[in-house]
Amino acid sequence: xxxxxxxxxxxxxxxxxLANDTLPWHRKVTYGFTDMSGNLLYxxxxxxxxYFFTNVFGLSxxxxxxxxxxxxxxxxxxxxVMGILVDHTHSKYGKSRPWxxxxxxxxxxxxxxxxxxxxxxGTMKVLYAGVMYILADLSYTAxxxxxxxxxxxxxxxxxxxxxxxxxxxxxxxxxxxxxxxFIIPFAGLLGGGNDQKGWSLAVGIYSIVAFIxxxxxxxxxxxKNIENEKVITIKExxxxxxxxxxxxxIVVANLxxxxxxxxxxxxxxxxxxxxxxxxxxxxxxxxxxxxxVIGMAxxxxxxxxxxxxxxxxxxxxxxxxxxxxxxxxxxNVTSALIGWCVACIGSGSACTMFFAMVGDTVxxxxxxxxxxxxxxxxxxxxxxCIQMGxxxxxxxxxxxxxxxGFNAANKVQSAGxxxxxxxxxxxxxxxxxxxxxxxxxxxxxWERHEPVVKADLAERNAKxxxxxxxxxx
Length: 473
Hints:
84% helix, transmembrane helix
């Protein structure tokens, strides 16, 4: 009888903890500032790095592609290391939150230096580009890994996490909008005909804004139950992956997503400058990426009816349809813009889902192994996928362009080069997105098991709290 009473008491305590664990609105917004800051600078890198290296910095497309791949390999290795560092962090601010304070300035400075062209030539110029690219990306990894790893500690509510993540992605999209839409005209305005000067000044101003946003986010965020968090070993971090199949699926699917996304973004400036014969269309089309907030904001509503796996599949399909639409639109700008908007809504919303679901795999890992490795699991599921996918995507795009004969020194590209640009921008992403879609269909099985995981973990935590209280008595 007493045993049953204890079980009932634990269950009631667990339900009470879940019901009362809410995240204030202002904290959801300031949590979103982290991604807004990151995207304000990182989306310049992901969208224009290859273009900047070839058309502004002065590197060949082959050299630029190799640098981008090597840099991403370094960063991809840095992602799990950063995750382990988060898991080993123990401070009065929590595990993830202090990293926003520590990395905000290095992130802003290194990105600015990356887009600053020094008076160098030959090997030294290539070396400067490579080193700054690695430092900028490593600092982004050190800043972005805590963005995902902090979410499970802000609230244990699935709805609260989904809402906070949606707001984060919406504000992140605002950062993306200002990055990809205005950086080229802003650099042109500040440079007065000197592209190298203009890019340095424009990115410098963006860096200041990004730094301020990160500091505000740090000051407002709060991690819960940090007094109960223990420092876990590397071995324990790795143990959290054992049998964690939903995490494996999310990692591979998200890696495929980012590879496709960066292939598209890297080749997009070339497509509009050369295939559509209008450099102004680059900023014009990128300005319409803001439309993806419609999909991002609606994600929680879609999830209620289609679940997470179904919502992700739906938006990936939308992305692929939009990409194909652009391909069939040809030189029709209006039709291409419609396809672009459809693709942006789809890709932005799918991205939201991956970030939300990787947090759920932390719960599964704890349920399965007894180890809660927020930092390591989310670092691989988010930062590693972004960095490695970006490396693969940029490299794939550059090698295809090189194979089809692209040369930035030629103001008019050959027919073969134009075909390569079109193939890279339109069809290669569709092929890679399809891989991600298939994996998300498989993920359905694991999502159905989540209610059991949540209930069991809540009951365990309630029992642990009750035992700790009894021990103190």
